[in-house]
Design a protein that fits this description.
Helices cover 28% and strands 23% of the residues. The chain is built from seven helices and 14 strands. The longest helix has 18 residues. It is globular, with a radius of gyration of 17 Å.
Length: 279
């Protein structure tokens, strides 16, 4: 992994850093197997399956361990400081030969947070390549801060509202962030990024781990469900979840179920509909 000062400098200049070696391919394969076994167990329960994909870190101990991995924590601390929460670790899955995409967007647009002190560590659990729909970043675009977005609610878009930035992006400016299983990229919440369809015969699976400063809060006063992973929490702005009580534990599902309602209200505020694919 690059030294902290190199991470901070590259992140400040470009808005992203990759690749970051987090875990080995064998461990990534084990976490993927745990996830896919859970998906299989819940295949006839779409409500709990959707919660699993939005809250893998609250429902599977293997993902709780992943969000607390020292390499990820050190990377996030390099740009945010020591006091960290995980706001979400939702999965972004593109099945084999899937048309699903992620349009050009900025992460922080609809999260309802009061500041931009957030970074996303996107951990690959399967190969993320140009062919499988790896993320693309526009270097330096985070310096534009928030730009206007439009909602498309496109069924092939993995974003909550199918949101996309209302400015033209030159694809020639894009950097494709190819990752091996177990590697991560880290990007700023205002960075322009997108990803294309998966044209391969394997699933593209990644966990988008959203680290935020513990001092942040939801603008509407909602106490979102978070994990406290580093430093102190002197602010009490969030509902701090304990580690999972077990694997696919019903009490943990109930915590996630309550938070999903609150997050849906935040993510779809002003949209006029709630037919997106997230939460």
């Amino acid at each position: 992994m690059p030294e902290d000062r190199n991470i901070a400098q590259r992140y400040d200049e470009d808005g992203f850093v990759f690749p970051i070696d987090v875990i080995g391919e064998s461990e990534a394969s084990d976490i993927r197997s745990d996830l896919e076994a859970a998906e299989n167990e819940l295949r006839d329960d779409p409500e709990r399956l959707a919660l699993l994909r939005s809250y893998p870190d609250r429902l599977l101990p293997s993902f709780d361990r992943l969000i607390r991995h020292p390499v990820l924590i050190d990377s996030a601390k390099a740009v945010l400081g020591p006091d960290l929460m995980v706001w979400s670790a939702a999965l972004f899955i593109k099945d084999a030969n899937s048309p699903k995409i992620v349009s050009w967007h900025q992460d922080l647009t609809y999260w309802g947070l009061d500041d931009a002190e957030e970074t996303t560590c996107w951990v690959a659990l399967s190969p993320a390549t140009a062919a499988s729909g790896a993320m693309k970043f526009v270097a330096g675009s985070h310096k534009k801060r928030a730009v206007e977005h439009i909602d498309t609610f496109d069924q092939n878009n993995l974003l909550s509202r199918g949101q996309e930035i209302a400015v033209d992006v030159d694809e020639n400016d894009a950097v494709v962030t190819e990752l091996l299983p177990g590697q991560a990229s880290m990007h700023h919440g205002h960075l322009f990024h997108a990803s294309g369809p998966n044209t391969t015969d394997d699933r593209r699976i990644g966990s988008a781990i959203r680290y935020i400063k513990a001092s942040m809060k939801q603008q509407d006063g909602t106490k979102s469900l978070v994990a406290h992973v580093s430093g102190e929490d002197r602010w009490n702005h969030f509902n701090v979840a304990p580690p999972p009580n077990g694997r696919l534990n019903e009490a943990d599902f109930e915590l996630c179920r309550s938070d999903a309602i609150a997050k849906r209200n935040i993510l779809y505020a002003g949209a006029g509909q709630e037919t997106g694919t997230r939460y």
